[in-house]
Amino acid sequence: MISNKKITIGVTNLSFHRIAASLVTNILLDMGFEVNRIYEHHEKNFQNLKEGKTDLLTSAWLPSSHGGYRAEVQKTVPLTNLGLHYKPYALWGVPEYVSKKAVTEVKDLLKPEVLAKMNRRIQGINPGAGISRFSAQMITDYNLGEAGYSFHTGTEEDCFSAFENAVANKEWIVVPLWKPQFLHYKHKIRELKDPKGLLGVVDEAVLLIRDDKKDLFSSEQLKVLDSLRFGNDVIAELDYKVSVEGMDIDKVTKTWLEQNR
């Protein structure tokens, strides 16, 4: 069915979010839509959805990471969740060479023998991300600040390069991360237990559509969008191909769809 209608989708400007958005974009193109992607940080994406600057928002993490943003939009703009792109969750991890006997949970970071080796600067991504909000709380609630640990927001590159540089030198480091993400495809990262539950729950990454934009789609097209299932491992692998191997994102996702749908 060729509709020749224009669709604008909001994309959180992080590599794995761009992967999910590219998968959705290819499906919309196959439906005959002209697709415009707007890349913004978390809060701005939801604001754009609320203001009608975007029709869809790809891979909203609900209920934990983005639930508050969704609730704010929902106060004035009815929304519907479609599909289940993957099941993301936030984590703190360490490289596999960090002694498991020494470090298995967050409170172990306070052990004298760990303090002697661990880099106490924890480098994150942008401040609006769930992992950033959770990590700042971790520093306080686990009394890590008193031991000299500090959490810093920044870019994806800041976070990933800090981790990879440490790994290259076999240094002990904590990385505030999430699944899916390409570092898991490249490295073995051991998750630290979080008894306080500050890192949230396992979310569901869904496609959000403004209810007043549903009439752009046929009922069959909405069913297709609601049937989309990719999974953490698929997103991580495609993210690796694009972010590390430098492959073209839309070609990578189109190839995967052709081979797997």
Mean pLDDT: 95
How far apart are the termini?
Answer: 18 Å
CATH topology label of the largest domain: D-Maltodextrin-Binding Protein, domain 2
Order of strands across the main sheet: 2-1-3-10-4
**Silhouette:** globular
- Mind summarizing the main beta sheet? 5 strands, mixed
CATH architecture of the largest domain: 3-Layer(aba) Sandwich
Name the CATH superfamily classification of the largest domain. Periplasmic binding protein-like II
| Count of individual beta strands | 10
Give me the number of helical elements. Answer: 10
Helix coverage percent: 25-40%
Please report the first level of CATH classification, the CATH class of the largest domain: Alpha Beta
Structural class: alpha/beta
Q: Beta-strand percentage?
A: 15-25%
Write the layout of secondary structure elements.
Layout: E1 6-12, H1 15-30, E2 34-40, H2 42-51, E3 56-62, H3 67-74, E4 79-86, E5 89-95, H4 112-115, E6 121-123, H5 130-141, E7 150-152, H6 156-168, E8 175-179, H7 182-186, E9 189-191, E10 204-210, H8 219-226, H9 232-243, H10 249-260
Structural write-up:
The protein is α/β, with parallel strands linked by helices. The longest helix is centred in the first third of the chain and has 16 residues, at 15-30. The chain is 38% helix and 22% strand. The strands form 3 sheets. It has a 5-stranded mixed sheet with strand order 2-1-3-10-4, with helices on both faces. A 3-stranded antiparallel sheet has the order 8-5-9. Strands 6-7 form a two-stranded parallel sheet. Helix 1 (15-30) crosses helix 10 (249-260) and helix 2 (42-51) packs parallel to helix 3. It has 2 domains: 6-87 and 202-260, 3-Layer(aba) Sandwich (D-Maltodextrin-Binding Protein, domain 2), CATH 3.40.190.10; 89-191, 3-Layer(aba) Sandwich (D-Maltodextrin-Binding Protein, domain 2).
